[in-house]
Amino acid sequence: MTSTTPAERSPTTATALLEVEKIGKSYGQVHALRGVSATINAAEVTCVLGDNGAGKSTFIKILSGVHPHTTGELRVDGRRTRFASPRQALEAGIATVYQDLAVVPLMPVWRNFFLGSEPTKGIGPLRRLDVAFMRRTTRAELARMGIHLRDVDQPIGTLSGGERQSVAIARAVYFGARVLILDEPTAALGVKQSGVVLKYIVAARDAGLGVVFVTHNPHHAYLVGDRFVLLKRGVMVGGYARTELTLAELTREMAGGAELAALGHELARTDPGTSPPDRWSETDPVGSGPHGLRPLGPPPPHRDIEKESQQGVDT
Amino acid sequence: MVARAVSLPGEDGPTTISPLTRMLRRAEVGAAVAAVAVFVFFSLVTESFATPGGVATWLDSAALFGIMAIAVALLMIGGEFDLSAGTMVGSTGLIVGILTTHSGVNVWLAVVLALVFAVVVGAFNGFLVMRTNLPSFIVTLGTFFVLQGLNLALTKAIIGQVAVQGLNAVPGFFDARWLFGSTFSLFGTAFQISVVWWLVLTAVATWILMRTRAGNWIFAVGGAQVSARQVGVPVLRTKIGLFVGTAAAGWLAGMLQLFRTSTVQASTGVGQEFIYIICAVVGGCLLTGGYGSAIGAALGALIYGMTYQGIVFAQWDNNWLKAFLGVMLLAAVLVNTYVRRRVEVSR
Ligand SMILES: Nc1ncnc2c1ncn2[C@@H]1O[C@H](COP(=O)(O)OP(=O)(O)O)[C@@H](O)[C@H]1O
Ligand SMILES: [Mg+2]
Q1: Please, what CATH class does the domain formed by B26-160+169-346 belong to?
Q2: Residues with CB under 6 A from ligand 1
């Protein structure tokens, strides 16, 4: 299976907001991440995919300044950078919506919206929060996201998961983010609310932001993604532009590719009722490999998995 | 722009909030109701409770505890405890007492040195808690024992006894007394200056909590420290500031007691640290942090002060105070837990 870094086959001339090259992070002896290269362009959605423990969160922690990288290079607008704190990343226009949303449940929505970047008025000991502005702005920005709160004083913990996600995204957009990083925003949501969040991702992209969308759901990724970075056990196993692969291939990559083939083989043999080759021979007539171009609207993923398994038997 | 209006599925219409929830959202409501009840009760069962003289007495009690309770409340909202706050009252008093009576240091200089000591110990507490990630309960328990031991051992070693006396013979004592130990007249009764300090501190702490960036950060580091750091809140600075705050409040309480009585015992303040915490909890602070109010803590101290003196006025056995305190604490914790559930519930 061939894979190349996005930098080698950049399909568009979009401006690179953020570039990483062979970046890595070790926690002491643990190599949580190694050799990841990617380019985050404005008005594009870059999806970072991988199984649990693949290093997705570690990757975005590097981008967002939570943990500095230990190897490789990080460039913002072409300049080598190393973030020492989340604040530095924020100042460079990189906003992150974490898995836990980085909200304080007991605090009112408007205080959460501005947390860490509170506007003030007055000077000296009379320097104080511009409360009226904060409330007004929170209400207006949320309304733009389609959330109409009667009371911005309600604790943010009383909002639904989708609403909280939207508050977090609205906050990032409001604070002039150029890069918006979302760590598994759809993981804890139902189908409908996931759809809402995906719409916000597209909306943020249309607003010109470079979006980094971390997920382990290839279906969600393929709906909105322009580029795909695949991680596996802390290593980058592939980087693709959208034109280079289909949902089916993405799904198979995610599902484990060759490993799954071996697993399928093993499982099939324990089932005495069917002989694998017989069953598989009628499944998928298209002999397309991982890079055989296929139109959209691919067959359901399980068919491809079976096909892959068949290849596993043949070879 | 991202201005596209997307309606959230399953979330039709604005959320309505009942006036009850809105009321309960205020941390100090329960304490206010309880304070009124305690006041009415002792006004009815004793002659002198509601007289100006009686009021001056229990207000003074409330003030000395309130000053500490407010600082402790801010720290608790910030998610930490300080068990060394009580002994700090003794330590700072002893420093000023020994420096002035034994070493001949100028009163004002001694007062400032005691404050510096408090700030250093507070910052040390905060730094240790943040660097070790140990519970502040344990770290400040250590500081508590160290200070308690030093208060006794050093005082004995230096002046040969466990109490400092004769401060009123020190030059300049009465200048400083104006600030810390004087009284003012109102309704023909002498009120302690501590009441003014208490009220000013309540106002300042409320201002900080509700209307400054630091206040926002205090709620945030107590409510969700990781999240706070992620959005750029200076967590270390906020927490250290809060520990310095309780230590400085200990200094203020130490000065107020020292200059009023012109004596200080080496054991001053020991055993009071839990009363401050109870006042804060009765005032609506959550033990888990992230929620509470300075006014609530002030009311908690008011309840304590009124009960403390009310029992004296009623000439009851003083041990009733402890029983009452326990009941108040349990009731407050139950109410707080209920409020928190209402407030924090995720749909
Ligand atoms: N703070 C840490 N200390 C040590 N190891 C860590 C730390 N954070 C993550 N790891 C390890 O790094 C690997 C990648 O984790 P993570 O980036 O959280 O994966 P993902 O988000 O893709 O599930 C895991 O094996 C995890 O155990
Ligand atoms: Mg993760």
Answers
A1: mainly alpha
A2: A 27, 30, 32, 50, 52-58, 234
- For residues A259-272, one letter each, b for 16 or more C-beta atoms within 10 angstroms of the residue's C-beta and e for the rest, the string is ebbeebeeebeeee
Q: Look at ligand 1, atom 12, and give the residue with the nearest C-alpha.
A: A32
Q: What secondary structure letter does DSSP report for B147? A: H
Ligand sitting nearest the alpha carbon of A230: 1
The whole-angstrom distance between B310's CA and the closest CA on chain A is: 36
CB B219 within 8 A of CB B77: yes
Q: What is the pLDDT along chain B (347 residues), one digit of tens a residue?
A: 333 333 333 333 344 556 666 666 677 888 888 889 899 999 999 988 999 999 999 999 999 999 999 999 999 999 999 999 999 999 999 999 999 988 888 999 999 999 999 999 999 999 999 999 999 999 999 999 999 999 999 988 988 888 888 888 888 888 888 889 888 888 888 899 999 999 999 999 999 999 999 999 999 999 888 888 888 899 999 999 999 999 999 999 999 999 998 888 888 888 888 899 999 999 989 888 888 999 999 999 999 999 999 999 888 888 888 888 888 888 888 877 776 676 655 43
Cα torsion at B157, B159, B161, B162 (round to 10°)? -80
Interface contact B8-A86, CB threshold 8 A: no
Question: What stretch of H or E contains B330?
Answer: helix B320-344
Q: Say yes or no: B20 contacts chain A, CB-CB below 8 A.
A: no
- Residues around ion ligand 2, judged by CB within 5 A, are A 57
Domains of chain A: 13-246 (3.40.50.300), 268-314 (no CATH)
Instruction: Please check whether residue B341 touches A, CB under 8 A.
Output: no
User: Could you read off the pLDDT of A20-37 as tens digits, one per residue?
Assistant: 989 999 888 888 898 899
pLDDT of amino acid A277: 46
Q: How far apart are CA A260 and CA A252, in angstroms?
A: 9
> Across the interface, do B25 and A155 touch by the CB < 8 Å criterion?
yes
Q: DSSP strand E in A158-269: where?
A: 179-183, 210-215, 227-232, 235-241
Cβ atoms of A137 and A171 closer than 8 Å? no
Residue of B15, B231, B341 for testing the chain A interface, max A β-carbons within 10 Å: B231
Q: Nearest to residue B101, comparing CAs of B264, B270, B268, B269?
A: B264
Taking the C-alpha atoms of residue A255 and residue A262, their distance in angstroms, rounded to an integer, is 12
Inter-chain residue contact A115 with B228, CB threshold 8 Å: yes
Which of B2, B224, B233 has the CB atom closest to A144's CB atom? Answer: B2
Name the pTM for this structure. Answer: 0.76
CA A245 / ligand 1 centre spacing (Å): 28
Q: Which of A105, A143, A196 sits opposite B344 (nearest CB)?
A: A105
Q: Where are the domains of chain B?
A: 26-160+169-346
Is there a contact between B232 and A90 if contact means CB atoms under 8 Å apart? yes
- Res. A53: pLDDT tops 80: yes
- Ligand 1 atom closest to the Cα of residue A55 is 17
Q: Residue B206 to residues A112, B81, B85, B293: CA-CA distances in angstroms?
A: 19, 19, 20, 7
